[in-house]
Prior knowledge:
The complex is a heterodimer of chains A (322) and B (478).
Chain A: H1 2-36, E1 47-51, H2 58-74, E2 77-81, H3 88-100, E3 105-109, H4 115-123, E4 127-131, E5 142-146, H5 148-163, E6 168-174, H6 179-192, E7 198-205, H7 210-223, E8 229-232, H8 237-248, E9 255-258, H9 264-270, E10 273-278, H10 281-296, E11 304-307, E12 310-313, H11 314-321
Parallel strand pairs in A: 1-2, 1-3, 3-4, 4-5, 5-11, 6-7, 6-8, 8-9, 9-10
Antiparallel strand pairs in A: 10-12
Helix pairs in contact in A: 2-10, 5-6, 7-8
Chain B: H1 3-66, H2 69-92, H3 99-121, H4 127-214, H5 230-271, H6 276-292, H7 296-312, E1 319-321, H8 322-340, E2 344-350, E3 358-360, H9 364-375, E4 383-391, E5 395-402, H10 409-416, H11 424-428, H12 435-449, E6 454-460, E7 464-472
Parallel strand pairs in B: 2-4
Antiparallel strand pairs in B: 1-3, 4-5, 5-7, 6-7
Helix pairs in contact in B: 1-2, 1-4, 2-3, 3-4, 4-5, 6-7, 7-8, 8-9, 9-12
Amino acid sequence: xxRRIISIVLSVAVLASLFxxxxxAIKINSAVSELNNRLTSTEATKRIILxxxxxxxxYWQLLKQGALEQAEAYGYLLQYIGPQRHDLEEQxxxxxxxxxxxxxxxxxxxxxxxxxxFELAQERGISIITVDTDIASSSRIAYVGTDNRLAGxxxxxxxxxxxxxxxxxxxxxxGSFAHNQSERLTALQHALAEFPHIELVDIRTSNISxxxxxxxxxxxxxxxxxINVFVGLSGLDxxxxxxxxxxxxxQHIPVFGFDNLLNTEELxxxxxxxxxxxxxxxxxxxxxxxxxxxxxxxxxxxxxxxIPTMVLTAEQQxxxxx
Amino acid sequence: xxxxxxxxxxIPLLFLxxxxxxxxxxxxxxxxxxxxxxxxxxxLVYERLNEYIHNNIQLADQWLTTQSEDSYIAMQEGSxxxxxxxxxxxxxxxPINGMxxxxxxxxxxxxxxxxxxxxxxxxxxxxxxxxxYLDEAERLSSYITEDxxxxxxxxxxxxxxxxxxxxxxxxxxxxxxMMLLIGVTALCLWLAYTISTSISxxxxxxxxxxxxxxxxxxxxxxxxxxxxxxxxRLGTAFNDMQLQLKQYIAAEKETxxxxxxxxxxxxxxxxxxxxxxxxxxxxxxxxxLALIEGAERTSDLTVAMANLLRYNLRQLDTPVPLRxxxxxxxxxxxxxQARYRDRVQFQTDIxxxxxxxxxxxxxxxxxxxxxxxxxxxQLERGAIIMLRIHGNDEFTWIVIEDNxxxxxxxxxxxxxxxxxxxxxxxxxxxxxxxxxxxxxxxxRLQLLYGEQHEVRIDSRIGEGTSITLRVPRHKExx
Lengths: 322, 478
């Protein structure tokens, strides 16, 4: 009897280890063959290069995400590139490079001075779609971006409703004077012109840097201590302003911002940011690919598409939470 | 299972397991190495492409400035190399995480190649145009450099994702392989032990049995083994051998006993055989003398006596036809009648066909003698002795009856217990001295015919005795 038990135990042990051994071998085999078994590049599918203003900002990441989803739906290949830091020169160079890589389409910002390159791309059969910022006069096929006029108007309305009738001395920080942001500013100015008790004291650029936005805030507070409202016109400005106000120990000053980045929602909840005009970059990305698809398929497409912005305030947050 | 089959199955199986372990280990490590080598190869291709392109631009620059044929030829060679490397890259296919990047990279190189054509075709006399091409090429080259590092990064990423898993599996495989090796070794040792004991234990047992037999102990059953085992037949053979030996020895003993009995009877006969010729001659003389003297009965008696003696002196181990026995019985009775006169009567009821059955010599006389001595001695008159012989093709029955005093159960049992030789003390008891003759008759029948003979005694005290013998129907000539 013990003999039989020993035999069985030994056999089972050998069989079990044989099983694990073979499983490992098969796994190695499959993993290795997966490594070696590479897809042959399919030239037939459309290749699109998306050039971001800055590679890792949430805005562009969301835009990329939307574009990628839409591109996958159509079976397009999407390459996402962009400068590590906000750098106009690098952005231009990447556009040149993208043109040299001969994709089917390029999605990028329509920046001043890019017209010649757009021209070159068109010559080489590359379709250009501008997002976020447009150069209407260029050879780009379509533009998809935020409705900046609406955004400026919404911001003005928000300020009106929140500030009531008190007189306001407003300090403005803008990311850059790129077309899109200028448009916002213009719309804001235009809307506020009707209300004399609100005055824009100064406008400064942050170069879409939180640090610089904070620094500018401190500078402005030094220069115009009577400023009692701040407005940030690009994504990280409002957060930078809060940093600056913290540094200047002026936490009570209300801030109006743009987009919903990082801890914006938290700051709104705390009441530091009164409200934010939120763009929908993901929708922009999707829409850009959608228009491109229409164009490539030879169908009617909209040359300019404006994606509306939304107003984010504490009341809305509560409404959502409820 | 037969040992041979066991070995035939187990040994190749173990070799198979060991072989497959080695093979799998080898092939797995080979695969891993190969995939790594391929990765290196790909990375090298990116690197080379980069290098060739740089080189070619330099050569083009040289060609422009020095216009040496060497640089022109080298440039063309470089172009071919670039094309080869690009082809290899396309054969490899893109890494899983950088399909579109790979396509862009290839497109960049193709752009460069398109541009490079101008180096060899356009005239270098138009220096301005040529250097503008060169500038363009430099720019593309910088893009390519950038992208090739990007591709190398992607390749490494793709490899790393898998390689971590592979390394883990290699580790698992090493552990399970070690376990397997230990397990197989243990199993081998165990099997070796089992097989060797399965051979040595039966051999030891059989050796013990054989030694026992050698010492003369035939009553030890050899160990039994499973029917499929090689030792089953050996064990059975041992048992058969013991059985045969026992039977042989028993048969030998019986023969010896029979011989001994014959010797004894012969000895008894010899006692009465002293100088038989003298005896017969004397008896003859007496018979003739009695006839001359007119005593016919005496003469007949003497002749009967002579016949009786002659018959008694025959070879004891030769069978005789029943007819002779009956005749001898008649002679014997005639002599006895001379003594008992009318007190006794001899009747026969004989089937003549059965008289050619052969029986041992002197079968009937001892029985008659017994009747005269014990059965009817004390009867005053009317004693009847009946001899019946009947039978069929198989057996002959001889029945001797008397109406004498009969015998008690003890005597009967003594008589019937003829298969054992009586002990020396039993022989001495005077009461059974004559019973010895009767028992000898029975015994001889048993030794001669074995199971085929039968002896029955029916007796009642005061009413008589009937002894029935059954013998097989042997004939003299058959």
